[in-house]
Amino acid sequence: MFRALRHRDYRLFWVGQTISQLGGWMQTVGLAWLVLELTDSPFMLGLIFTLQYAPHLFVSLPAGALADRFPKRKLVLATNLALALVSFTLALLLHLDRVQFWHVALLTGLTGLIGSLEVPARHSYQIVLVGRHDLMNAVALNSASFNLARIAGPALAGVLIARMGVEPTFLLNALSFLPLICALLLIRSPGLPEGHHLSVLTGVKEGLSYAWKTPQVSIPLRLMLVISVCVINHTVLVPLLARDVLHGGPEAVGWLFAALGVGALAGGLLVAAEVRQRPAILSLALTALLLSALYAAVAPVRMLASAMALLFFLGFVQIRFTVGCNSILQVVTPDPLRGRVLSLYSLVFLGSTPVGSLVSGLVAQAWGVAAAYALGGLVAALAVLALSPALQTLSRVRRRRRSLRVTVRS
């Protein structure tokens, strides 16, 4: 289950990243609660998370080309230093009691811009740290650490906000970058680029062409786009579910995020224990359908315990889906193209979040939180079913190839 941690550099990276993600989830809850305190508007809450993820729409593709041209360790180090400074600035504004909504919007957008540069480099750096054989295990352990942080971070943030206000969540997030920065300074693997140094524009075109012509890449990306837009809107809807439906406060937000995280942690560890390199694309589509159904099932919930149980299973299935997508893309893609293909993953996973956040916020404000969950799950399920012809074509191609290999051996 933990075989990727045998690699020294990955072990340092994993520990530092886990601590950083703990602070990140504390700030996510603090940010949501701060926006609701400043505006009391579900739409403004959706707008803030739209601003956070909108830069991925415009920066992810060139960021992937940069990740294939420059040492990945330096890129990850520089971007995490910048993210720490942004969080500290917001904490300082809160401490001075000068914070206004436009400050939050501006700094959240800056966080998204820096993050869109960091994600492709970080994802493509993993195979450098562990090698191809342990890649899926490393992706699963990375997801497990993310969700371990999602368990502890929101729960701790909920307690801190209830007793001390939102300021500590931003300060602790700024400090949580220090272990990751130290780990990156100690890591020996620089993640040097492979292949020719193409211009950024040429590199982007080459990556897009490869993804478009390769069904094993394009189908997981389309599935991820559907799920990201329609289902993965927890940062907007979970605080509204806690406040408007369950009539709870910041502690209820923390418990709901923690339930989501426990389920994802369990799913991540189960994937890490599996020995196969990557799942079949058909099973990935079935997982997406189950995820859509679980999301819609949150709509009628009116009790905290029931909501926590559903979010547990939602987190469990979601992590199996995202790890499956990430692993398929990394294993299928040649080394010189990996940063650019993973920038497409970042684009559809994070860059589509502004659309999902804005739409879910608007639906929640107009028709309620339950309608946002029900509509998101229904649209996602229909979109996944619409991809079935492409899945059938891919299945026929794989059967022909398998039959050809058998004939050649004979």
What does this entry look like structurally?
- The chain is mostly helical.
- The chain has a single domain, classed as MFS general substrate transporter like domains (Growth Hormone, Chain: A, Up-down Bundle).
- Helix content is 83%, strand content 0%.
- It has 17 helices and no strands.
- α5 packs antiparallel against α14 (338-351) and α9 (215-230) packs antiparallel against α13 (304-332).
- It starts with 7 loop residues before the first helix and ends with a helix.
- The model has no long low-confidence stretch (mean pLDDT 83).
Please describe the topology of this protein:
Layout lengths: L7 H32 L2 H12 L1 H13 L4 H24 L5 H30 L4 H30 L2 H20 L13 H14 L1 H16 L3 H12 L4 H24 L7 H17 L6 H29 L5 H14 L1 H15 L1 H18 L1 H22 L1
Helix pairs in contact: 1-2, 1-5, 1-6, 1-7, 2-5, 2-15, 3-5, 3-8, 3-14, 4-5, 4-7, 5-14, 6-11, 6-13, 8-9, 9-12, 9-13, 9-14, 9-16, 10-11, 10-15, 10-16, 11-13, 12-13, 12-16, 13-14, 15-16
Overview features:
Growth Hormone, Chain: A; 83% helix; 410 residues
In short:
83% of the residues lie in helices and 0% in strands. It is an all-alpha fold.
Strands, count? 0
Structural class: mainly alpha
User: How large is the count of helical segments?
Assistant: 17
Distance N terminus to C terminus?
Answer: 38 Å
Written as H for each helix and E for each strand, in order along the chain, the element string is: HHHHHHHHHHHHHHHHH
The main β sheet shows up as: none
The CATH homologous superfamily corresponds to MFS general substrate transporter like domains
What is the level 1 CATH name?
Mainly Alpha
Please state the CA-atom Rg, rounded to the nearest Å: 21 Å
Mean pLDDT: 83
Principal-axis shape equals globular
> Share of helix among residues?
over 70%
Beta percentage is under 5%
What is the architecture at the second tier of CATH? Up-down Bundle
What's the domain count? 1
- State the low-pLDDT regions, or none: none
What fold name goes in the CATH topology slot?
A: Growth Hormone, Chain: A
